[in-house]
Write a structure and sequence with these properties.
With 399 residues, the protein is an alpha/beta fold. It has 14 helices and twelve strands. The strands form three sheets. It has an eight-stranded mixed beta sheet, with helices on both faces. A two-stranded antiparallel ribbon has the order 1-2. A two-stranded antiparallel sheet has the order 8-9. It binds nicotinamide-adenine-dinucleotide and SN-glycerol-3-phosphate (G3P).
Length: 399
């Protein structure tokens, strides 16, 4: 149930409404198909919840085909069964989102782009991204470059993409946001959706908000808003792709810092200070990278709200807490494997990527919290250094 002070978005459409006002395909009978096909690339904890949200809407909205295809990085479960087979049999992602029905119109597909893997649930030669007009990317960020390379020449050139991925790549030329990686490799426009979105809470339909960041096409943003919105998931569009995406990316570094504070029992005031300093570094770093980033973006769900939720209840916080409790003696990789059963942290690698940017540009002293998180993660500083170093007065003029 949405709070009374917010208006729940409309979830009805007329029969004539079309996503881009252009036909998507002409079928064998010569009939024009105006409906969009949605494919979700990724099927982890958030990927599965995203598929559930979308699938509930494609059944209701006339401008979408009911079926939502979900690409699954195939794995064999302890039972010996393939994950895709289990998802399609019980309509649940038994590994990454057990106990939650995804909707019968979610079809798990292990074949991302190759016609040579036999396709079980449809015609042979089909694959997950084939024919999709709307591509939703939601994998851990470290896998996206490889996925993009595999998808070159395999997606429709008029497809629209959205990234739910919180992370970035760092290249020789500098930082590269995941939406840019997608756009550059695949030659298609890419929006983003970020927010205070702990997947397990949305899975059981507890109220949450999210932010869609779009570049210039408002009607595309509205199409994404329609596809994701439910009475318990309120989505707001903002014309600031970089600002929205950097919020989602950088908050994971702040979450690691918050976890250290929890692991050391430093208390709520210290954690609030970490959140405040972290948000300030997020704003400064984003604006230094992209002067177009708007202040108002940090007051959307993707900004301050995500910092709060991730520092209270996220996986990055949880594993960082264990790291600090163990005095930094057990590695993040070991703790992640033990505590998350295949789910992936984004904060440790993002801290490294941010550190690379900071050191390359001579900004290390300007971002004491970001820099210290990385130094602690790699064992150059003890977890207790998080407060000593973060207390330095930032020197950036943008503060
Ligand atoms: N879980 C959340 O609460 C949440 C909420 C908002 C955003 N996000 C973001 O969504 C993105 C995806 O996270 P998630 O929670 O859906 O995933 P996850 O961490 O739950 O699961 C890991 C996924 O990676 C896949 N995988 C493992 N090895 C792979 C490989 N070599 N190639 C491709 N895929 C591989 C696994 O099959 C699994 O689907 C991340 O950027 C995350 O920050 C997560
Ligand atoms: O569990 P985390 O730390 O990956 O955070 C989950 C979401 O990003 C919170 O919005």
């Amino acid at each position: 149930m949405a709070p009374a002070f917010e208006q729940v978005p409309e979830d009805t459409e007329t029969q004539t409404e079309t996503p881009h006002n252009t036909p998507h395909t002409v079928n064998n009978d010569g009939q024009v198909d105006y409906k969009s096909r949605v494919t979700v690339v990724g099927s982890g904890n958030w990927g599965s919840v995203a598929a559930k949200l979308i699938a509930s809407n494609t059944l209701k909205l006339n401008s979408f085909h009911d079926e939502v295809r979900m690409w699954v990085f195939e794995e064999t479960l302890q039972s010996g069964e393939k994950l895709t087979e289990v998802i399609n049999r019980i309509n649940e992602n038994a590994k990454y989102l057990p106990g939650i029905k995804l909707g019968k119109n979610v079809i798990a597909d292990p074949d991302l782009e190759n016609a040579d893997v036999h396709f079980v649930y449809g015609e042979t030669g089909n694959y997950a991204v084939k024919d999709a007009n709307m591509l939703v990317f939601v994998t851990p960020h470290q896998f996206m470059e490889g996925i993009c390379k595999r998808l070159v020449g395999k997606v429709r050139q008029d497809a629209e993409a959205i990234s739910l991925i919180k992370g970035m790549e760092v290249k020789m030329e500098g930082p590269c946001m995941i939406s840019t990686l997608i756009s550059e490799h695949l030659g298609i426009n890419c929006s983003v959706l970020m927010g205070a979105n702990i997947a397990n809470e949305i899975a059981v339909e507890k109220f949450s908000e999210a932010t869609v960041g779009y570049r210039d096409k408002r009607e595309i943003a509205e199409q994404w808003v329609r596809l994701f919105s439910t009475p318990y998931f309120l989505v707001t569009p903002v014309q600031d792709v970089e600002g929205v995406e950097l919020c989602g990316t950088l908050k994971n570094v702040v979450a690691i810092a918050a976890g250290f504070v929890d692991g050391l029992d430093m208390g709520n005031n210290t954690k609030a200070a970490i959140m405040r300093i972290g948000l300030r570094e997020m704003i400064a770093f984003s604006k230094l990278l992209f002067s177009s980033v708007r202040d108002s973006t940090f007051f959307e769900s993707c900004g301050v709200a995500d910092v709060i939720t991730t520092c209270l209840g996220g996986r990055n916080r949880k594993v960082a807490e264990a790291f600090a409790k163990n005095g930094g003696k057990r590695s993040f990789d070991e703790l992640e494997a033990e505590m998350l059963q295949g789910q992936k942290l984004q904060g440790v690698s993002t801290a490294r990527e941010v550190y690379e940017v900071l050191s390359h540009r001579g900004w290390l002293e300007l971002f004491p919290l970001f820099a210290t998180v990385h130094e602690i993660c790699v064992g150059r500083l003890p977890p207790s250094a998080i407060v000593e170093h973060s207390e330095q007065k930032p020197k950036l003029s943008v503060f």
